[in-house]
Amino acid sequence: MKTKAICIAFLLIGFASFAQIPNSGFETWMNPNGYNVPFGWATNNDLTATANVFTCVKGAPGNPGQAYVKLISKNVSGMGVVNGIAVSGVRKADGTFSGYAFAERPINLTGNWQFMATGDDQGYISVVLTKWSSATASRDTISNTVHHLGSMVMSWRPFNIPIQYNNYNDPDTCKIILSASGDTPVATSYLYIDNLAFEGTTTGLLQLKSDEKILISPNPAIDFIHVDFSKIANKIISTSIADATGRIIATPENLTNINVSYLNSGIYLLNIQTSEGVISQRFRKL
């Protein structure tokens, strides 16, 4: 019986290691230290357990399934407000999160959610794809997609977040961050998530044909850049601006005249997410 149980455990671990997103439906929960945590995800529960306060708890029923994850920012005695957060992977000794092995280039992150911001607090969902570079002995950022939540969604609704790519490389690690709050968490902000999945695959940044161009003017720019999409045949889904490290720093809503006056001087990448992939164009801010 014991041998059989061990074999089943190894099968489950093996299945999880090849899963697109570990425990994507939050059906599997563990209780290693006297409190529940979702299998395959790191949370702040380890930090707050001494105060018997938990910012990540199991919700039921799921949408779909038996369970979902509830992330709630809470006031903890001696700690202040602690963010409700879950990160795919494990928490390392230095407090950072590892992510998990992943070598695909998905087009979208999908799932079901509910959320509510308290005051000006604004949670987010982030997908960080990286690859180790032996040449620089550091991680190259393939994608750093950040989707900020709005004020509230009070009942289960599906979501679809386009993944923004910075280059053509395949990643080796994925880190998904689900956060009920922003940089300064406010108590009672919450984010409920279920049924996560990656959708589609892109083989790289969309190559521009000779008759398809994005024109940015002026370039270099001081205050605004004007973007001409008239040569693009595919449906435009979203636009983002990344800095030299690949970090997404803005997701402009006005897609033709973009304010760049707040940017520091330097080189930036304008990423255009289309229905067929991502087109990127560099510009310089004076």
Kindly report how far apart the N and C termini lie: 70 Å
Form type: globular
Kindly name the structural category: mainly beta
Tally the helices.
2
At the third CATH level, what is the topology name of the largest domain?
A: Jelly Rolls
Strand residue percentage: 35-45%
The low-confidence runs, each spanning 5 or more residues with pLDDT under 50, are 1-19, 205-211
At CATH's second level, what is the architecture of the largest domain?
Sandwich
> Can you say what the CATH homologous superfamily of the largest domain is?
BT2081, beta-jelly-roll domain
* Number of E-type strands: 22
In total, the number of domains comes to 2
Give the biggest beta sheet.
6 strands, antiparallel
Oligomer category: single chain
In CATH, what is the class of the largest domain?
Answer: Mainly Beta
SSE string, helix = H, strand = E? HEEEHEEEEEEEEEEEEEEEEEEE
Range of helix content: under 10%
C-alpha-based Rg, rounded: 21 Å
